[in-house]
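Q: What would this complex look like in 3D?
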Amino acid sequence: MTNNTKRDRFFNLTLVLIHEKGFKATTMRAIAQNLQFEVANVYNYIASKESFLEESLFGIQQEFLLAMDTIEHSEYDARKKLELVIGSYIQITSERPYEQALLVNEWRNLKTPKLEEFVKRRREYERQLETIIQQGIEMGQLRDMDSELATKMILSTLRWSYQKFLSNKAQSNPLILEKQLIDFIFHGILMK
Amino acid sequence: MTNNTKRDRFFNLTLVLIHEKGFKATTMRAIAQNLQFEVANVYNYIASKESFLEESLFGIQQEFLLAMDTIEHSEYDARKKLELVIGSYIQITSERPYEQALLVNEWRNLKTPKLEEFVKRRREYERQLETIIQQGIEMGQLRDMDSELATKMILSTLRWSYQKFLSNKAQSNPLILEKQLIDFIFHGILMK
DNA sequence: TATTTACATGAACACTTGTTCATGTAAACT
DNA sequence: AGTTTACATGAACAAGTGTTCATGTAAATA
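A: Here is my prediction, written as structure tokens for the whole assembly.
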């Protein structure tokens, strides 16, 4: 019913195309041409250009939210939770790098009720991460710092990581990258 | 000749609008409406929508390249050079946050010869930064690590900083932010 | 065998896009 | 006083946009 080869091909190739050109710049005709058929046929796969974006975005965002919820409700300490957040982030990203690229670069193209919903959920994710960092500071595991700034810096470091898994280059090993990112975020770059 | 109030107003407000809506989503008619005049009048300020993007992008990019060149040719050690790169990055960003936002978010919209030129210059900037990091590793000032990855992580941390200077929020003090970013990049977040 | 399903086409639609052109006006220079 | 300069308008354009509709076909299912 849903697990069809042609359908998969459509979604995979379209995600790559949108990543390369940008959502707005990717026309329905370009999507069709990329798959070697006519424009009208695109509507046998998706209801609209807008709905394709919405479903891709909310689909992958949900993955991140679920991972964060699981970690938040666990019994680990803040440092371990932070490691798990980074680990889950890299794992999801390595499995679905093009959807993650969409999440990072194309969410602005959502229209008005969906856009607010998206931003609200993202803020919730950030708030959960910031809470973990605050706990780490209180417990003395993390240095005393501006927790909001730390949250933003960590996320900006993670957000970039999808580039390591795009299919046009030698792909990284997620576990190695995870270790490198934890190293950077925890210890910085300076020699001790 | 060039320092006209109305011109300044045009460029400032248009940069804000493009930052809010995105370049592709910002129509010439929206730019005109934002300034309370008619579409045709926009062409008294700029030659085309495309040229506006090009000139904004290459203008601010040049600032970064010049700062990097000065630092590269200085006699400081790698650690000090890295501090200067971060400092100049934050200073430029704090002075022109909306152009920096354009640089980060809208460079994809450049068309084919200009796009390659832009990417080439950005790569050169990244290469210069990576060289400094490599020197730091060789001199034992920085930990032994993947210098390319370190470069990307540092830049992704810096790229996000323009958000701290947008006019719709309480603006940060550039010098304080610079110190916080150097702290994060050099020492990470873990308590020693 | 009959029928549903998935995939495909081509023509047309209403609308939006960036841009141009001819023209106008008020202030600033010469 | 005459002329250049900066700023402004309204109408029109050609091209491109997402989407719809009626229709077709070959394979899977009943």
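A: To summarize the key features: Residues 27-29, 39-40, 43, 48-50 of chain B lie near DNA strand C (CB under 10 Å from a C1'). The two ends of chain B are 57 Å apart (CA to CA).
Q: Very helpful, thank you.
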